Amino acid sequence: MPSKPLYVLNGPNLNLLGVREPDVYGRDSLADIEAACAARARGHGLAIDFRQTNHEGQLIDWLHEAREKAALVVFNPGAYTHTSIALRDAVAAIGVPVIEIHLSNPAAREEFRHVSHVAPVAKGVIAGFGAHSYVLAIDAAALLLNPAAPAGQ
Length: 153
Ligand code: DQA
Hints:
- The radius of gyration is 14 Å and the shape is globular.
- α2 (about 30-45) packs parallel to α5 and α3 packs parallel to α4 (about 85-95).
- It is built from 5 helices and 5 strands; from the N terminus they run βααβαβαββα.
- It has helices at about 20-25, 30-45, 55-70, 85-95, 130-145; strands at about 5-10, 50, 70-75, 100, 125.
- The chain has a 5-stranded parallel beta sheet, with helices on both faces.
- The protein is of the alpha/beta class.
- The model has no long low-confidence stretch (mean pLDDT about 95).
């Protein structure tokens, strides 16, 4: 298992989880999700560094930082998923695997959410499972970082 942490990076409006459109995004707050991720990661012998910002440039700076400091990035870019070539370029640049995640399933929502600029350069995408998308991404990260582990562990 790597000594570097997983970065879990969250983009715009995700600070409002729990109160923001709960029918779409659920009632868990971002702090609840952070606690669930930390517990799941601990079970895999991994540490997480969990962050949120409303600013595109900050996300780019954190992705660059991940180049040296993270084993892998779990990334919910929020609405920047559908608009940001700069985030896509940052993901492509860093050489660290990135798992794109969403609480909702953007493919089942408005047409403007059907495009992800990040997905083509991500290792994979997990979407549509509410807060569980994050926990599933932690499991996927553990699998990627320890591919020799038998399925089911
Ligand atoms: C989201 C989906 C995006 O389309 C939306 O803009 C968000 C949240 C999700 O987690 O479901 O802010 O990334």
